[in-house]
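Checklist before submission:
- one chain only
- standard amino acids only
- sequence pasted in full

Submission:
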Amino acid sequence: MGKCDGRCTLLVICSLQLVAALQRQVFDFLGYQWAPILANFLHIMAVILGMFGTVQFRFRYLIFYAVWLVLWVGWNSFIICFYLEVGNLSQDRDFLMTFNTSLHRSWWMEHGPGCLVTAVLDSHMAPDDHHVITVSGCLLDYQYIEVLSSAIQILLALFGFVYACYVSKVFQDDEDSFDFIGGFDSYGYQPPQKSSHLQLQPLYTAG
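Returned file contents:
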């Protein structure tokens, strides 16, 4: 089938998006990043809906998936600006990611490649049930890992948006050429008309 190419490519893109979102969700859970956790959950649901719409030829599901991808690009652009501290954004504003429920930062801050974490003992800067640490020797700082993750999400979303628009256009063209919902109306088929009147004829018998 000619349209299988677009559908199969979109399914591959959705699968990559699903894997990337699940991987990101795990690390956001480990870092108690509640705002990204909520956004990731909504993204996973939207991607699953997009995959279902692609398999089941559901035009409206693909439109919803495409609209969500626009919002997803905006969210990841905000994440990039946040970690790069563009404009007035600052990583010191913890409530943006944790809804001001904890002092946790990105999981990669302490567990990045090559990072050496050292606890600072007898520090009066730490609140109750917390401790102060110093992180050194990281091959790649945590903010750049978060930026790279968001950039990958944006790249996949752009490809997904293009193919979602293409596949939905194919579905719409197919519906215009042959109306499955209306039966055989496109072929001029008309069901037999039933008469609502019954004509009675007199019956004569020979005496």
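Reviewer check: The longest strand covers residues 116-120.
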